[in-house]
Amino acid sequence: MLGSASPELVRVSSESLAGRVAFVDMSGFGLHEVGAKAMRRLWLRGGFPRSFLARSEKESAAWRRDFIRTFLERDLRTFGIDVSPRALRRLWTMLAHYHGQVWNASEIGRSLGEAHTTIRRHADVLVGALVVRELRPWFENLGKREIKSPKLYVRDSGVLHSLLGTESFDALESHPKLGASWEGFVIEQILSLTGIRDGYYWGTQAGAELDLLLTVKGKRVGFEVKYADAPRMTRSMRIALDDLELSPLYVVYPGRDPRSGRSAGGDRIGA
Question: Which residues of 106-232 form beta strands (DSSP E)?
Fold first, then answer.
C-alpha cells in the first residue's frame, strides 16, 4: 500500500530469499473499485481508506495530516531510515509544488539550501517508500533533442492536496496545480488498473510531449491528460502519434463531451 510496509516483511525480504519471495505493489482505492460517481471524492481525498471513507472533508483532511506526520516521524525510522523528519517534510512539500514537472535536484536544492546530492538521496527515500512516483523519460532515436530527466509525482492525490493546503474542492479548483493534480491522479489510476509497473513520459526540447507511454501486448499506447471539458487535437499529440507510432493515443479528461478528435487522428486517437 502507498507509504506502507510491514517491518517484519522488510526484515525477511532483506535476507537471501531469491526465488521464494514476491513483491506486490498495492495502491489505495482505485476508480474501478469506488465507481465513476465517486471520482471527484477519490481525487480530492485520495485512495487511503480512512481518508476516502471519512464522514466529512474535515475528518478526511485531519486524517491525512496525521498520516503525513506519523509516516515521517515514526514509520520511516521503523524501517531503518535515519533521515530528519523535518528535512523530508520540507522536500515532500516542495515536491508537491513541483508535482508533474521535470525533476531538477539542483534547483530544489538551491531553494532548500541543501546540496543536490542530499536532495537526490532524500527523494530516493520517498520514492522507495512508495509515496512519490518517479516517471522515467522514454528515449527514441528520432534525431530530436529529447528530455532525459524524470518527472516526480506525489502518488496519492489526497496527500498531495494536504501538502499543498488544498483540502476542499473549491480550493483545489482555484489552485495553480489543478491540472497537474488531475494528471497525477489519472496516471496513478491507469497504472493501477493495468497493473503495468514501467510507465514512461516523453518530451522534446521543442515542446512536444506525451504524459504517459505504456507498452501493451507489444504495442505502444499513449495517454494525454487534459483538465478540460472538450480537449482538442493538438500539434503535440500529432507529433507523439507519428514519432512514437502510437496505437492508439487516448485523451483522458473529466468532461462529458464525447468528442475525441477522431477526424484528426483517425482510429489512432480516442477519448
Answer: 132-137, 151-154, 200-203, 209-216, 219-225
Mean pLDDT by 10 residues, the chain (271 residues): 52 63 81 94 98 97 97 90 92 97 95 95 94 93 83 98 95 96 97 90 92 94 92 90 92 70 48 59
Is residue 227 domain-resident? no
Integer Cα distance of 180 and 71 in angstroms: 24
Host domain of residue 164: 7-133+154-189
Residue at 35 is within a domain? yes
- β-pairing, 219-225 vs 249-252, is parallel
Is 68 contained in some domain?
Answer: yes
Residue 208: inside a domain, yes or no?
Answer: no
Strands 132-137 and 219-225 come out as unpaired
| Burial (0-12, 13-18, 19+ Cβ within 10 Å), 188 | buried
Task: Quote the cell numbers at residue 223.
Answer: 495517454
* CB-CB contact of 152 with 201 (8 Å): no
User: Does a cis peptide bond (omega within 30 degrees of 0) precede residue 248?
Assistant: yes
Q: How many domains does the chain have?
A: 1
CA angle, residues 147, 196, 213, in degrees to nearest 5: 30
90/268 Cα distance (integer angstroms): 43
